[in-house]
Design brief:
The protein is an alpha+beta fold. The N and C termini lie far apart (40 Å). 24% of the residues lie in helices and 7% in strands. It has a two-stranded antiparallel sheet with strand order 1-2. β1 and β2 form a beta hairpin.
């Protein structure tokens, strides 16, 4: 089952918008172009972490 918070509040809705099951992912975040969310399973995490350490 996929749950989404699509109305900008803490009101969960059952949805398939993120297509998490077919992509075999456990999360998806979209907060607009000004934000970037990185999870430990993301391919670019190590490079991003190294850049933050500089």
């Amino acid at each position: 089952m996929e749950i989404g918070f699509r109305d900008g509040n803490d009101n969960p809705e059952i949805t398939r918008d993120g297509r998490l099951i077919e992509k075999k992912l456990h999360y998806f975040v979209d907060a607009g172009p000004e934000y970037k969310f990185i999870h430990s399973s993301d391919a670019g995490l190590r490079q991003y972490a190294d850049e933050l350490q500089k």
